[in-house]
Amino acid sequence: MNPAACDGLLVLDKPGGVTSRDAVNAALRWFPRGTRMGHTGTLDPLATGVLVLCLGAATRLTEYVQRMGKTYRAGVRLGARSDTDDADGVITAVDAAAPDASAVTACLTGFIGEIEQTPPAYSAAKVAGRRAYDLARRGQDVDLRPRRVHVYGIDVLRYDYPQLDLEVRCGKGTYIRSLARDLGARLGCGALIQTLRRTRVGPFTADDAVPMDADAATAQARLRPVEEAVAELPRVVLSNEMTRRLCQGQAVPCDELGADVEGVIAVHTAAGRLAATAVYDPVRRLLRPDKVLSSGVSRPT
What domains can you pick out in the chain, each with its CATH number? Predict the structure, then answer.
């Protein structure tokens, strides 16, 4: 397989005990030397499940995959706290009464919608340009500001104190460890993440994922089209001439999109291939190039 042909997405089933960077390094063995690859959203070492990798030209589109909604299965342990907010940290038992099921359910409703959430001290969030976990590991104070995230829904799958199993559907930047920590604080009994599995990122599910013990032939056969990285963006198909002009850096007219559409648009050729992303001006009805993909993907046909 030629590195130039390695454009696309690979849905990986990350095992526990490894970092997302370790998973990328391991996946590189399936593809020719020189293949560009990156992941689209960190999973903690404790966590397993869907890790979407971008290869080749798709590495320019990681931000669109990062914006996609996510679903997690979380095993929450009540009655304890952890300095990392999960079972990998230093755990301290909390002497508190077990909350009843109705109290847990009622409390969880307060975490649905747009909420403010402070990332864990042991996280990849940055403080003055440095990763929070680097400061925390050195025993330094970590002052992280709350950020707004969106939680679309939380379902209780099982509750048998101290074990609480949840399914969480959320948007970009949501920390499930923070959710567990804050839930425990509100209930007054403490909580931490015992197990965590990401089952979905946008349209990509665990059923689509390649296990880490797969061979190169299997991984290469499961490489998905670059177009799927922008599956959640509005789409427009341009003629070959308009595509060529856009890919040369020109703004081009576009009457196919309605006045209610704005922002970034996925631009496809008449043959259905992703040529670029572009920013749409609904007032002037113009498309301006945003990201033009490499020749093998963006060349009009």
Answer: 3-68+205-226 (3.30.2350.10), 70-201 (3.30.2350.10), 233-298 (2.30.130.10)
Residues in CB range of 140: below 8 A, 6 or more apart:
none
What is the DSSP secondary structure assignment for residue 209, as one 8-state letter? P
Q: Is-contact 92 80, C-beta < 8 A?
A: yes
Contacts 24+ apart (CB under 8 A), 102-106: 103/187, 104/156, 104/159, 104/164, 104/187, 105/156
Looking at the annotation, which residues are catalytic?
A: 44
User: How does pLDDT run across 173-204, given as a tens digit for each residue?
Assistant: 999 999 999 999 999 999 999 999 999 999 99
Residue 299: per-residue pLDDT: 39
Q: Is 137 left (phi over 0), alpha (psi -120 to 50) or beta?
A: alpha
pTM value is 0.90
* Backbone torsion region of residue 173, taken as left when φ is above 0, otherwise alpha when ψ lies between -120 and 50, otherwise beta: left
Sign of CA dihedral 233, 236, 242, 244: positive
The rounded distance, in Å, linking the Cα atoms of 10 and 5 is: 14
Is the Cβ–Cβ distance between 50 and 37 less than 8 Å? no
